[in-house]
Design goal:
Layout (H helix, E strand, L loop, with lengths): L1 E6 L11 E6 L2 H13 L3 E4 L8 E13 L5 E13 L12 E7 L8 H17 L14 H4 L7 H9 L3 H31 L12
Antiparallel strand pairs: 1-6, 2-5, 3-4, 4-5, 5-6
Helix pairs in contact: 2-5
Organism: Marinoscillum furvescens DSM 4134
Protein name: Lon N-terminal domain-containing protein
Pfam family, one: LON_substr_bdg
């Protein structure tokens, strides 16, 4: 499905279902948000993490949290669907902001329950290891997108995830990342401990032969 929408590029990746708070201060984006509010339409956030405009996420405005006297706004948005930009027009029509036709992509909802359980176990282990379990509560049905920006993925890795057409493929990608990350953090912590002990007198239990 092809749709023409306003476009608001960001150096970030927004995922479907993710809620994102934005502070709107540039004149062109104040115009964009006001237009969307007036017409009750969505806009797109192309992810400019690889210095090109290609893939992004359509978002809806949930709420205007605050309006400032100079026209600035704090808004709450939620990601809807992934798209591929067909033609990035800047400016778009007679507006200050960019826009253009995008292809809304179909994502196969083929996630597996066993992979979801594995994902939640690894997330729980990571946040417990980081002493963040009280800040981030993980359950068996925790959405991947609730914690996706908190598990140490690089922006370009998040971009790879965004482009995937299969939820199961995304599950495998994130699980593999966590299975590599947690042991690496543990090795780094052991190395730090050895560095702290370097030069100190050490007590070793005698070996029995």
């Amino acid at each position: 499905m092809v749709k023409e929408i306003p476009l608001f590029p960001l150096n970030s990746v927004v995922f479907p279902g993710e809620e994102l708070n934005l502070h709107i201060f540039e004149p062109r984006y104040k115009e964009l948000v006001n237009d969307c509010l007036q017409t009750k339409t969505t806009f797109g956030i192309p992810s400019y993490v690889l210095t090109k405009i290609e893939y992004g996420t359509e978002v809806e405005i949930l709420d205007v949290s605050k309006r400032y006297d100079d026209g600035r706004m704090d808004i709450k948005t939620r990601g809807l669907r992934v798209f591929k930009v067909q033609d990035f027009q800047n400016p778009w029509q007679n507006k200050q902001y960019a826009g253009g036709p995008v292809e809304l992509l179909e994502v196969e909802q083929d996630q597996e329950e066993s992979l979801q359980l594995k994902f939640s176990e690894l997330c729980r282990a990571l946040f417990e290891w980081l002493h963040m379990e009280e800040e981030i509560t993980i359950s068996e049905d925790t959405s991947m997108y609730k914690v996706i920006h908190k598990i140490g993925l690089k922006p370009e890795e998040e971009y790879i995830l965004l482009k995937m057409r299969s939820e199961r493929q995304r599950q495998h990608f994130v699980i593999e990342h966590l299975e590599q990350l947690i042991p690496a953090l543990e090795r780094a912590e052991r190395a730090k401990e050895k560095i702290r002990l370097n030069g100190h007198f050490k007590h070793f239990d005698p070996l029995k032969f």
